[in-house]
């Protein structure tokens, strides 16, 4: 998708999503964007970044936003790129979901005197905030798993927990990178050239990014603690099961030993007695009871 929006006399917005080869050629030829920059903005694995190209007069800012993979609350982060050239802002999104630009389109239709820089900073601020509802959803899911600590755990619960850990690992890296890039942008010559209003917008975006990074780190820490508790419970249950099986394997070995001994084809005391088999059962039961009591006395059960 490649759409050009005329916002005002100071600003044009070129909106893109999952560019085709033909659209890439349009970007290269009609808008004169270098191939190296186009490779940056179309790489779905590109990290958060800030690039200043003084030769072509380009300013590129890449931030990461959450992207949902499936219905099981699995998320990853994907890059969204803002490229400024003269009076034009390009937004690039090669991820699985369309860029969250409802706010941007409202700004586009409303009468304003936005500059490319203002438009980019408003977009970054909005995209950074897109983590918050996702983190709330993760918190709700975490509370559900937390309630299962006193109940029987299933493999499905463990898979859900692993999905949360996976999502938060992606988010933690993405949100920290967003903070680093916004700090770099603020200290750059480009950031120092902002108007006072735009500097305030950048500061607001940085504060939001730091808050989101802190929320993500805290949630990741809590989920990791819950995972450790889950592991302890599972290991304890496994130990109890192995202990039970070990004790009863020892107990069942006693009658096997006795019956095997008296089953030999030789003369043995009491073997010819009509009630000899009862004596064997009684002896086996007594030895099993003795074994269990001995294990309990030595705290092996």
Structural summary, described in words:
This protein is an alpha+beta fold. It has two domains: 2-236, Beta Polymerase, domain 2; 237-297, no CATH class. It has nine helices and six strands. Strand 1 (2-8) and strand 2 (11-16) form a beta hairpin. Helix 6 packs antiparallel against helix 8 and helix 8 (196-262) runs antiparallel to helix 9. The model has no long low-confidence stretch (mean pLDDT 83).
Find the CATH topology of the largest domain: Beta Polymerase, domain 2
Largest sheet: 6 strands, mixed
- Using DSSP, what is the number of strands? 6
Which bin fits the share of residues in helices? 55-70%
* SSE succession: EEHHEEEEHHHHHHH
At a glance:
The protein has helices at 21-29, 35-41, 102-109, 116-129, 131-147, 155-187, 189-192, 196-262, 276-297; strands at 2-8, 11-16, 49-53, 58-68, 75-85, 88-93. It has 301 residues and is of the alpha+beta class. The protein folds into two domains: 2-236, CorA soluble domain-like (Beta Polymerase, domain 2, 2-Layer Sandwich); 237-297, no CATH class.
Please describe the structure with a list of short key phrases separated by commas or semicolons.
301 residues, alpha+beta, Beta Polymerase, domain 2, 2 domains, 6-stranded mixed sheet, 9 helices, 6 strands, 60% helix, rod-shaped
